[in-house]
Every structure is written in C-alpha cells, then in structure tokens.
Amino acid sequence: MDVEQLEILRYPIGKFLAPAKISKVEIDNFICDLEDLPALFRKEMEGLSKEMLDEEYRPGGWTARQVVHHVADSHMNAYIRFKLTLTEDLPTIKPYKESLWAELSDAKNGHPELSLSLLDAIHRRFVVFLRSIPENEFDRRYFHPESKKEFDLKTALALYSWHGKHHLEHIRNVKRKFDA
User: Fold this and answer.
1) Could you give the 3-state DSSP secondary structure of residue 94?
2) CA distance linking residue 124 with residue 153, whole number of Å
3) Is residue 180 scored above 80 in pLDDT?
4) Using CA atoms, how far apart are residues 175 and 145, in angstroms rounded to an integer?
5) What would the DSSP string read from start to end of 26-47?
6) Dist CA 104 CA 91 (whole Å)
7) C-beta pairs of 53-58 under 8 Å, 24+ apart in sequence
C-alpha cells in the first residue's frame, strides 16, 4: 500500500479544515451532527464480530474497538473544554496523549458498549449545553498549550463535528474490509 492510499484510509473524509467564518446556521448544524453521532456509531458497531472489533481500520491504525473508545474519550474532553471556556477567561485546556490512551487496557480490550453508552449520555448532555449557549458566546476562546494557539468555540464545535464523522468512517472502512 502506498503513502497516498494510507493517507486516504487515515483521513477518509479529508483533513479538518477550519471554516473562515461560521454562521448561526452552521453552529446549529454542527450541534445536530453531535446529537446524531451516538446513534450512528451504534448502527455501525452493531453486529461487529470480535475479529472485526479488533481489526485496524488501516495498517498501523487503531482497531474499531479503540476508535469507539477514543471518540468517547475525546468528546468527554471536548465537553469539559467547552464548560471551562464558558466559565473562565481564556482557560488553558489540559491536553492528553490520545495515542497512549488508546493503548490502555480499557481501550484495547473494553466492550464497545461501555463507550457507546458513554457517548449516548455525554452527547445528550453536551447538546443540551450547546443549545443553551448564546451565539456570541461561541466566540469565547481557550488556549491549547501543545499547539500554542487559541481556539474559539465555533471552530472547536466544527472540529468535533468533523471528528465524529471522521472516526465513523473508520468503522465503516473496517466493515468494508470484511464485506470484500
């Protein structure tokens, strides 16, 4: 497999591109994406065998099992980052080592239902929270110490909308490997 093919498998919907300007309609659409994500993950994970759960979505990539646990981990962090940003002035968020979290036992061996249930709960709460935020508050920012950049909540919301779709496609790629 060549480098280009690996890149397509790594970013099946393309890399995240931050929109230059994000409207209220787009904010609402991103929130709807987050609202729909747990059901979409459930649908794609349904009926996956142990072999499929432990299959990498690309050579050297995470397994389907690790992907679903990663999305739960990531979106829990997103929820906390949003709450910090609305309650503090330019908070410095706590980064975490995603690749190392994915290697921990709960991510490598845990039953996917653990994270599917978590996604259901965190997304219900996150969506209620997001819908309560006045539009102008989405301009609030947090500081990411690893990238040394500030991120406004509109861009972060766009990122997490993309993030869910990105990893959902990884699960679909695993399923396609077994359909072939």
Assistant:
1) coil
2) 18
3) no
4) 37
5) HHHHHHHHHHHHHHHHHHHHTT
6) 28
7) 53/112, 55/174, 55/177, 55/178, 56/174, 57/9, 57/170, 57/171, 57/173, 57/174, 58/6, 58/9, 58/10, 58/170, 58/173
- Amino acid making up residue 8: I
Q: Report pLDDT digits (tens) over 136-154.
A: 999 999 999 999 999 999 9
* Among 39, 26, 4, 27, residue whose Cα is nearest residue 164: 39
| Distance (Å, whole) CA 143 – CA 52 | 38
Angle at which helices 24-45 and 112-131 cross, to 10°: 160
98-128 pLDDT, tens digit each:
999 999 999 999 999 999 999 999 999 999 9
Residue 53 confidence class, pLDDT cut points 50, 70, 90: very high
- pLDDT for 30 equals 98
Q: Give the number of C-alpha atoms closer than 13 A to the C-alpha of residue 29, restricted to the C-beta side.
A: 9
What does the alpha-carbon distance between residue 22 and residue 155 come to, in Å, rounded to a whole number? 8
Of 70, 43, 39, the residue nearest 163 (C-alpha):
70
Q: What pLDDT digit, counting tens, does each position of 125-135 carry?
A: 999 999 999 99
